[in-house]
Amino acid sequence: MTAPPPPPPPSMEPPSRQPQTHFTIAVDSDHKATEFRLFSISSPHMRAFHLAWLSLFSCFFSTFSIPPLLPIIRQDLHLTDADIGSAGIASFAGSIFSRLTMGPACDLLGPRIASASLSLLTAPVVLSTSLISTPQSFIFLRFLIGFSLANFVSSQFWMSSMFSGSVVGLANGVAAGWANVGSGLTQLVMPLVYSFITSLDVPSVTAWRVAFVLPATFQAVMAVMVLAFGQDLPDGKYKRSRITGSKDKDNFFE
């Protein structure tokens, strides 16, 4: 009777470089995805991708929701050409300022918390569009709403945390490109929403104000989804993963 063959020797490869089985997508030694499956929602890589672009999409939708209704808003608030020009500059300035601060926020908190926090802070600002009554408040509001576009930075940060160098450019490009569609879609949707509200015999001066419930709600819902279903890194929470190496699964409240 022959003796059974000896067991294979243990792998001398470092644990971080041994094949992983708990991901449904190919990953590298840092557990970053090495492939990009556009129509997949596998966790955590592709789920993070879809949450990132949808969250940024909602921010673009909110930021550009005012121009389609500007003729009605202009008449109601008695805006001058100078007021409209100043509001556009204010919105641009707000987006630049907030992007400068979003980078350090992502370094400190991780892309998930930074993105969701900004969206939740600016969603009430979008909703408060329904309360403005002066040109000055309109200009100030455009400045604050512009802050939401800083989520572009957190989106790119998040993609770099989830995808390896071989596909991160593709992930970043698609996420940013799809998100930018929000700035165009709002040109179609907001007038339709306004028309629907006025069809219910709501006065024009009230209808355009009620219409901003849509972008504000959309942005807030996406922020909650990022918190509830997102994950900063392939192995868990941003801070804990970097400091303690813990691979505990992320949750809504942490």
Automatic annotation (TrEMBL):
GO cellular component terms, A-Z: endomembrane system
The name this protein goes by in its record: Major facilitator superfamily (MFS) profile domain-containing protein
SUPFAM superfamilies referenced in this protein's UniProt entry, alphabetically: MFS general substrate transporter (SSF103473)
Pfam families for this protein: MFS_1 (PF07690)
Domain Major facilitator superfamily (MFS) profile: 48-254
TM segment ranges: 51-72, 139-158, 170-194, 206-230
Source species of the chain: Escallonia rubra
InterPro entries given in the database record: MFS, MFS_dom, MFS_trans_sf, NO3_transporter
Membrane topology, as annotated: Multi-pass membrane protein
